[in-house]
Amino acid sequence: MPLDILKAGDEAAVADILKQGKPVEITGGGTKLGLGRPVAVERRLDVSALSGITAYEPAELLLTAAAGTPLSQIEATLSQHGQCLAFEPPDLSQLLGAGAGQTLGGVVATNLSGPRRISAGAARDHVLGLRAVNGRGEIFRAGGKVVKNVTGYDLPKLLTGSFGTMAVFTELTLKVLPAAETEETIALPGLDCAEAVTVMCQALGSSAALSGAAWVPGTGVALRLEGFGPSVEARRQRLLALLGRDADVWAAPASKAWWREMRDLAPLGSGAGQAVWKISIPATQAPALLEKLKSLGEHKAALDWGGALVWVSLPCGTDAKAGDLRALLPPDAYAMLMVAPAEVRASQPVFQPRPAAQMAIEEKVRRSFDPDALLNPGRMV
Amino acid sequence: MRMPDPDEQAIGRRRQLVEGLRRIVPGEGVIVDEESLTAYDCDALSAYRQRPLAAVLPETVDQVSRVLRLCGELGIKVVPRGGGTSLSGGSLPVADGIVLAMGRFNRILEIDLANRQARVQPGVTNLAISKAVDADGFYYAPDPSSQIACSIGGNVSENAGGVHCLKYGMTSNNVLAVEFVTLEGEVIRFGGGYDQPGLDMMGLLVGSEGLLGVITEVTVRLLPKPETQRAALIGFPSNRRAADAVAAIIAAGIIPAGMEMMDKPAIKVTEDFVHAGYPLHVEALLIVELDGPKVEVDHLLAEVEKIAKENGAETCVVSETEAQRLTFWAGRKAAFPAVGRISRDYMTMDGSIPRGQLPDVLDHIAELSEKHGLRVANVFHAGDGNLHPLILFDASKPGELEAAENFGADILRKCIAVGGVLTGEHGVGIEKRDLMSEQFSEVDLDQQRRLKDVFDPAGLFNPGKVFPLLHRCVADGRMIVSAGANYAFPDLPRF
Question: Class assignment of domain A53-178?
Fold first, then answer.
């Protein structure tokens, strides 16, 4: 389908375009067009020109930027002041077969959060306020530019992870936090999945205050400690005594490199011909699930978030084995198809199907922002 | 405080309503006699009272569901209530509605330490969750100061905060799933794990102030208890120097577990009341609490002390024992009752501002104090810029209540003018409802109202809260505590 690219220069232009009442696919850096169900429309709204950090006060722990600002620019600015986005947004561009250049708006729209999610929260926990344009073409504000706020409904949380199906972000205010002074990783090689989950639950339930707990077959378990030097050292000693197992300790550079790869899902290999699933599950149920996944044949699996996040990569075929895989999930688990060719994402539910009453109310909520389904229609199916 | 005009026809259906309710909730679960109903007339914002048509105390989710369906059919309004500790009138009844009291939902359903979570009914108190897992070394982090009495369902509805939000987040950052019943009686679960299977509906429900539905179950995150907690008590020659120290501590990469500030009038009045050993010659006092491994706490306290001195601290005492740490907190926690001792009435704001604006806003509050001819004491969560100015007045003197209301509204307008918001943790409720139009445009508010319509087009859930009433001019936004015997829960710490 020939695409009409509409580049919006500012917020008012976004509103003008939406007031024309025609459906659009929204894009910033274009790195996440392959995430979610494909959107079949003739117009693409490009907001990458809405770019730039508009306010950053390190002592306020707040950063405000236009939604199309490249994440790399934000992270570089924060880094100069010893701060970071604590939810550790991943860069899945390689996995998704896209170029570099993801934007803040894209990260927030997809609620993508890295290994530190277990201790620092997800993207949704860091979005404090926003400006956006709804499907009526109205510019609205929600939340605020302060770290603590309960005034009105928490629309920033509702809109984070809504995949652009409710509003086009134009400006976002995020809570930022001091970056850790140092980090180390305790690596326990040779553990199988069940042992790994036991160890991760034990470590996460201790006062070691881990900021990462992952398992990759072959590598074993990695437990990350971040903070001030004397604290990391004390917690390492405590944790090693608690675990009572042979372990390697990776110093900061090796630790950083390993978690960056984990964050970006390098252990799953490149995405060619593969489908990648993201499964959310109570950690203690992950080993049983991995056992069952063997019935699907060839696949790779890795655990993050202490076992509460299962990544699965398998040969995609025509259906990414969606039905078979979802049939293996226990009641408290749900799976999202993260990587697959467009035709597979068009034919299979990308998001976990939910009870009808829940889906119905979500749809009504979505329509209260976008009554005519103009924004990324069908993306979240 | 004006409430929407009661629907006389709905009131006329009271007998039918009560008969229906009794068929659903047996025995003493339906309260209609005037004397017993008085217990439900108000929440902690007790200057405002209203007798409801009835109070219903369901015990099962099915009963909640059927009660809501019945109310929907009869057009009866529903005010959900947990512990009744709201400071913003969140569970103030209406004359043409029932109070749906969730106190009988008081069971902890499942504690899952391996996955660090607990599934609880909404009537369980905040503190009861922490107590249930205390022996195992865990706790539930958000700690509103009314935690001994407030319910987790109420915490979810109001997105309750506490002293430790700066480091550990608000309720919304510590809840994994909620079960919720719609007006149609439909039971829906939202959330689940560390992310959502669809839209973040849980994020919307947390902090929705009982306007969208009734929470019947909550899954909360549990955290391992920190090994050590210590606090520093630091005195400064001016509010500005104290605020500078707060900024410098954060700029140094330190996120304390709590960082509280008091101005001179607040120091004086609390010290007179609890004798916590606060220095009386300083203009501003900071309490900085650190938690974590002992070596980390010691290391960071030394840093904090250094930064404080660089910023002109006149006194600095670090707690050496748990008893001493609690003494440091005793005065701060008693600020509200302490003010109640020296003033017949007082009201408090809950505005939240960018931290850097703190000195200017305090100067402005001092000017307003002169302009309105009323005293003010300031306590606040300095770490996250959440102010609690306490305005002292005597409602028995002609014009003082009005002056206090105007003073309060002026403070909140200032908060908005410097980029802040009306409420950091108490909720909008009835109290700040009419100031919403100062913070939000009509387009902003309409977007929120449309969400309300999705869940409750007839406006039966918790009417008169959060959104400005039509044709009502902006007037006030504060909590009034009157010594004239209408401060509910007088013994609860409040900050």
Answer: alpha beta
